[in-house]
């Protein structure tokens, strides 16, 4: 069996905007059929990466390959890559059908075939019968689906999604997440998904890359990125984490190398509870209690610093103050580079 | 929507303001029907349609009207092409001197017509080009371009850049993108800008005076008639034509840009 070519490959790509390096010497690959997320805060370079893949922007140096073909200088209309825009970018003067069929119209696909494929595509995104509507007559979620159908009808090698769910409310967003995942499974197209929402990235992705200041801090499958964050930035940006260094690190692990530990990996007990033989423990004082409904978040003061601890609210007895014992397994300590 | 109706004093003030603006028009309309032929007395001694038939037979009036329509049409056409191209150039790419060009394009409408007029006249004299229909057209185009340019630039700014990117993303080259996405988006802006340009050109006096040779456009013909006491109401009839010809496109342009806002 021959090795599959990567859908997208960045080789030492740099994109400089005046004084700022939006993308700084990046190299990574996205495999065919993968749901790959670019996760990072705004200004971290993830959207610039997407625009480089789409062809709206060209790198200052480096090479971008699509299925092994050098593409860094190709215009957008010569790449088999389609984009779902953050603001959807539907054409307001066209109907839903004309929007979705736009790329087929440009390719001079016969009218009957075009009509059939547009109908199929609209079925796929559950917008059957909406052909004749104008984008202005649709809700936010429906526009989103039209944008998706329009980008998928061409069966691109890669589908780029630029924070497509950002404008939707929470319930709709969760529903669209599920649908996106289902659609991706069905069409078997590589999805590259830009988001600043770490939960979304963890939920949807096969793999994700965490961006910070034009560089990738870590690439991996969601569980790996969450459980074993490579850097303090990842530990902090993906989920909630205790990033411990200095005196507290010295007190807890006997070394001042920084490490991360997730709040839910730390158990809070009273002082009498015996510590299992292979676990670590510390004694601290509850400083703050934040009731979150499903769980409670505590800030516990220890010698040399604080730890955040999250306890599931499985019993109604929630300690409010006083001295407590914290217990955790050694394996949950992630040393940071 | 405010639920309370405005106080009476405000209504009276608004009514007074509108009356002040529109009363002169009614006077013009009224005297197009008067039976007097030299002096305008109020109220008119009698009403007649005779002046309309007199006007129909006046060759000079029809020549002036035709010339005005021709000049306005050609100047508007020129303005539509050049104004749109300029707007797209200024909108699309930041280049050296972009702000300056944008400012220079807008200047003719801010400059007093008399300055533009004198400037054009001396320039045309200097180059030795004879004054003609075309010099009038060029004179009018200076301010017609601004109107189109302004409308198109405003529309381009409201058109999301991502639409153009989306079009290219879906496989359209720049020319196809212009044809299928940019142009339809500009259509109503072009119509509104074009109509405004047409109306501006149609009743222009000052620049025309400086750039015309022997020709007289309708507004100039009307001015020349005012100094002659003979058949005065014919001028009013001509004024009625002018009002109708300029008012309709402006009204239409207004309606079109409103339709656009509401969708």
Quick overview:
Chain A is of the alpha+beta class. Chain A contains ten helices and 18 strands.
Tally of domains of chain A: 2
Low-confidence stretches of chain B: none
The biggest sheet of chain A amounts to: 6 strands, mixed
CATH class term of the largest domain in chain A: Alpha Beta
Number of strands of chain B: 0
**Overall CATH class of chain B:** Mainly Alpha
**Remind me, CATH topology of the largest domain in chain A?**
Rossmann fold
Tell me the CATH superfamily of chain B: MetI-like
Shape of chain B: globular
Number of helices of chain B: 11
Beta-strand portion of chain B reads under 5%
Q: Terminal Cα separation of chain A, in Å?
A: 38 Å
- The helix/strand class of chain B is mainly alpha
CATH architecture descriptor text of the largest domain in chain A: 3-Layer(aba) Sandwich
CATH superfamily of the largest domain in chain A: P-loop containing nucleotide triphosphate hydrolases
The string of secondary-structure elements of chain B, in order, is: HHHHHHHHHHH
Helix content of chain A: 25-40%
The CATH topology of chain B is what? MetI-like fold
Q: Provide the domain count of chain B.
A: 1
Membrane topology (chain A): Peripheral membrane protein
GO cellular component, one term (chain A): ATP-binding cassette (ABC) transporter complex
InterPro entries (chain A): AAA+_ATPase (IPR003593), ABC_SmlMolc_Importer (IPR050093), ABC_transporter-like_ATP-bd (IPR003439), ABC_transporter-like_CS (IPR017871), Mo/tungstate-bd_C_term_dom (IPR008995), P-loop_NTPase (IPR027417), Transp-assoc_OB_typ2 (IPR013611)
Keywords (chain A): ATP-binding, Nucleotide-binding, Transport
Describe what you observe in this structure.
The complex is a heterodimer of chains A (337) and B (263). By secondary structure, chain A is an alpha+beta fold. Chain A is built from ten helices and 18 strands. In chain A, helix 4 (111-124) crosses helix 5. With 263 residues, chain B is mainly alpha-helical. Chain B has a single domain, classed as MetI-like fold (Orthogonal Bundle). Chain B contains eleven helices and no strands. Chain A: Pfam families: ABC_tran, TOBE_2.
